[in-house]
């Protein structure tokens, strides 16, 4: 029998939460023949990732997934075989009663935020709280054995390899976004939160002898880009040049197009969780803008990832990339850190490929979830 899954998502950070759950829902349907309902409280944010979404509908089908608007006034709904509360969101109390009333108790999991911290391995798969007789379990994505792994669709790395080896395919894709890439320019994607360090980074690129072309999808960092350019408004597609740096604003793209954008670029600056993971699958050097948390808890997560990611690098490369990430996430001057990173670019490029292959040697998140359910029953 087909296993029925309910995935609940509250949109907190614009696109990260829905980005992860939308990818997961589609993969469960396409690769594991599951029946999936994706409950989302903000369909307008979802619409940016999936333009086919009709925000006026309470129920619709998209790419094999039943998309349901999560209403404030919950209606009686039968609980599924597997229930995922994404990122510790609180399920409707009536739905929790429906879980308890099922003849066969469902598997209830909290799909937590991605972290490289050591304690994650010890907590992954452990029981959490109970609601009546229904037990909840922790499920942690991660980078190490003993975690739930990372979202990765079947054949993703092979598709990426073929695309990166096909200059014409890249050129056609970029031209579709209005981008004409100069042969000698270093192509960079920039998707970030507001950041006071951006001006120093752009200044460093503008003053370089190397040409840089920075592609900025519509998002929160545009205000800082606009201030650096001294303009009153940035229009999608327009080119802005200063010294060796060309800046171009791109329209917000859907997930599969964003993957291809990352694959085209030589260096990717990303934010949050979903784009962070996709940049790692691109196999190119990256810069992560982690989501800020109270009491700077996010910086502990940043350091935990850096400890893992920089293993095997030379001291110079390790110092360069770690310094760049720390400065970016503190909104500090990027100049010297960027220069150091550029000097180690070959080693960092090779390391990004090796890291990607290492992570791909483990089971992906969707497969790990399905296996967890299989073992549970």
Textual characterization of the structure:
This protein folds into 2 domains: 4-150 and 363-376, Rossmann fold (3-Layer(aba) Sandwich); 156-360, 3-Layer(aba) Sandwich (Rossmann fold), CATH 3.40.50. It starts with a strand and ends with a helix. The chain is globular and about 70 Å long. The model has no long low-confidence stretch (mean pLDDT 95). The protein is an alpha/beta fold and 377 residues long. The chain has helices at residues 16-32, 43-49, 93-101, 119-123, 156-164, 167-176, 198-206, 222-229, 255-264, 274-281, 297-309, 315-330, 335-343, 345-360, 365-376; strands at residues 4-9, 35-40, 59-62, 65-69, 82-86, 107-111, 127-131, 134-139, 186-190, 212-217, 239-242, 245-250, 267-271, 286-289. The strands form 2 sheets. It has an 8-stranded mixed β-sheet with strand order 3-4-2-1-5-6-8-7, sandwiched between helices. Helix 1 (16-32) crosses helix 15 (365-376). The protein is built from 15 helices and 14 strands.
Number of beta-strand segments: 14
- Assign the CATH class of the largest domain: Alpha Beta
The rough form would be described as globular
Radius of gyration: 21 Å
Keywords: Elongation factor, Glycosyltransferase, Protein biosynthesis, Transferase
Function: Protein-arginine rhamnosyltransferase that catalyzes the transfer of a single rhamnose to elongation factor P (EF-P) on 'Lys-32', a modification required for EF-P-dependent rescue of polyproline stalled ribosomes.
GO molecular function: translation elongation factor activity
Protein name: Protein-arginine rhamnosyltransferase
